């Protein structure tokens, strides 16, 4: 169940109860729920050695999607992200935290099978990700980009997710 807010009412015994109101926009994120493998590599090149795993699951109550990942490459960070609604309709916000102590906030959309993440902050540089969900829902093929000078975008790395288990 995806929750937007709570509606307060009195039950038959006169007790104050909160009942969640459903937020249909959060249902878009169900496409990510499950367990995935991750592989990354240089632009257009073969994947780097090592792999990763990521799990997307709803936090109790259904208002936030929790993303956790581990990567078998010592230079790459493990981490967690919390995804919830943004103020604008159909948009989300991802709060990212990793094992290096890095924390970032990304603006996010998931619309018609295209997943985007972006941040304009200059520390250390603006970033964006665009991934396309396969028609069967079993792959996401994407690319991370960065703008070291704050204006000119370049590919950082390609990334592919492969679903290994549903919900």
- Secondary structure: helix percent: under 10%
Mean pLDDT: 89
Distance between the termini: 13 Å
Q: List low-pLDDT spans.
A: 1-7
Number of domains in the coordinates? 1
CATH H-level superfamily title: Calycin beta-barrel core domain
Beta fraction of the residues? over 45%
Put simply, the count of helices is 0
The appropriate CATH architecture is Beta Barrel
Structural class: mainly beta
Note the overall shape: globular
- Total strand segments: 12
Task: Report the order of strands and helices.
Answer: EEEEEEEEEEEE
- The order of strands across the largest sheet is 3-4-5-6-7-8-9-10-11-12
Mind telling me the CATH class? Mainly Beta
Key traits:
167 residues, two-stranded antiparallel sheet, 56% strand, Lipocalin, ten-stranded antiparallel beta barrel, disordered N terminus, mainly beta, globular
Structure description:
- This protein has strands at residues 3-10, 16-22, 34-41, 52-58, 65-71, 79-85, 92-98, 103-111, 114-119, 127-133, 139-146, 154-166.
- It has no helices and twelve strands.
- Helices cover 0% and strands 56% of the residues.
- The model is unreliable at 1-7 (pLDDT under 50).
- By secondary structure, it is mainly β.
- It is globular.
- It has one domain (24-166): Lipocalin (Beta Barrel).
- The strands form two sheets. A ten-stranded antiparallel beta barrel has the order 3-4-5-6-7-8-9-10-11-12.
């Amino acid at each position: 169940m995806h929750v937007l807010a709570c509606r307060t009412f009195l039950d038959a015994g006169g007790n104050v109860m909160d009942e969640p109101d459903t937020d249909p926009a959060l249902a878009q994120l169900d496409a990510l729920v499950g367990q995935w493998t991750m592989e990354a590599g240089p632009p257009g090149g073969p994947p780097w050695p090592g792999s990763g795993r990521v799990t997307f699951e709803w936090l109790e109550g259904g208002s936030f999607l929790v993303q956790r990942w581990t990567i078998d490459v010592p230079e790459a960070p493990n981490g967690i992200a919390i995804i919830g609604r943004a103020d604008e309709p159909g948009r989300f916000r991802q709060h990212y935290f990793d094992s290096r102590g890095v924390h970032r906030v990304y603006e996010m959309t998931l619309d018609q099978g295209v997943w985007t993440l972006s941040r304009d902050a200059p520390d250390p540089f603006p970033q964006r990700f665009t991934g396309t969900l396969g028609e069967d829902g079993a792959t996401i093929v994407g690319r991370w980009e960065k703008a070291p000078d704050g204006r000119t975008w370049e590919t950082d790395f390609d990334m592919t997710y492969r679903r290994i288990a549903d919900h």
